[in-house]
Amino acid sequence: MHVMSQSLEKIAGGKLEATLKKMTSNPFKSLALGAGITIAVQSSAASVGILQALSLTGTISYRMAIPIIMGQNIGTCVTALLSSIGVNKNAKRVTVVHMSFNIIGTVICLAFFYGLDAIVHFSFVDKSISAVEIAAVHSIFNIVTTLILLPFTDQLVKLANKIIPNTKEKETSVLLDNRLISTPPLAVSQCRERTVEMAVGAKEALHEALTAMFDINEKAVQSVEDKEQMLDEMEDKLSTFLLELSSVSLTDPDSRIVTELLHCISDFERISDHAINMIEIGQEMKQSDQEFSANAKADFATLFAALTEISGLTVKAFMDNDTDLAMNVEPLEEVIDDLTAAIRDKHIQRLRKGECSPELGVYLSDLLINCERVSDHCSNIAVSIIQISKSSMNSHDYLSGLKAERSPRFIESYTAYGQKYRLAAE
User: Fold this and answer.
1) In 3D, which of 109, 100, 84 has the Cα closest to residue 159?
2) Is 94 exposed, middle or buried (0-12, 13-18, 19+ CB in 10 A)?
3) Residue 280, class by beta-carbon neighbours within 10 Å (0-12 exposed, 13-18 middle, 19+ buried)?
4) What percent of the chain is predicted at pLDDT more than 90?
5) Are 245 and 207 in contact (CB under 8 A)?
6) What average pLDDT does this structure show over 296-316?
């Protein structure tokens, strides 16, 4: 820093002090100078460093430095302002709060300082300020501003909402900003949040499809289609982003999370695909005036209830990263396999008795296949949660061992689910 100050002195010759005094002849010019330098270098730390280097020449007084430092705090808002381009409204509101905080804090501190100086006439304001004292003034400004504005956080939020209001227009947002990759922990956190959104969307799409299966309406169909399309887009963008993220240096915990997300996002997307398939089967049955018997509908009601539980269980286990909850998924998945097999057998019996048509058998078979696939994807996600916690991803060995060992816990859960989801006898 001393070398830098010597260079500045040499470049300016003997006119450095006169030039600075002219540029900082009033607080507003000093404020603008500090903000302008910070905007130019896009770093308050760098502009403070420049000011500290200049202070070593002995030409910077407190009267010059204080408004410059406050201007630097306003200038640093440009980084947040640039980062807010192309992001959603909430992110823009964060920028507004950041700018409001610095601007309001500057106005209050400058008014207080110059008002008090007019009364008390501080003796130190025309003395040279040192590099350490510049850092101290910078820190004091931020601490004081925080203490003053902390009780008014709600008002700052209201101001941001007023400046960036909600509109009826559909907002186009960026799913994941590539700039996040330079900060891997933040990028991993954002990826997990987006995957949680996928998990919730997949569960909702499935539940809507199951609810509307035998009572098809356009509203339900459109809702499921919209969610499936959204999940398709999210899966594509997330997988691309995660692959880019996996190529940078990550901590072991972050690396495990990225691996888990890469395994899970395709399963969540596939669940929504099966939800679409189910509701399309319902549409086709309605258009062809086909309807399952009362007994078949009762069987499917039991199966749908089991699917609702396994999907809810899986999503909650993923959201909470709860391995204990994930352990309950596989026993329920086996019960669902048993249910689909039993429903097929009962349908064959009805066919032999002439109580059901072969055309309905096609719909029934397709519907059961989709139900089985949903439970399989739930199982895959649960296994990923469990295996990631064990720093292992050999899911085939895990499932083989789980089914071969049949631990007391597995048998207990399997038995309980089997009792809960039993088909009625005909």
Assistant:
1) 100
2) middle
3) middle
4) 32
5) no
6) 95
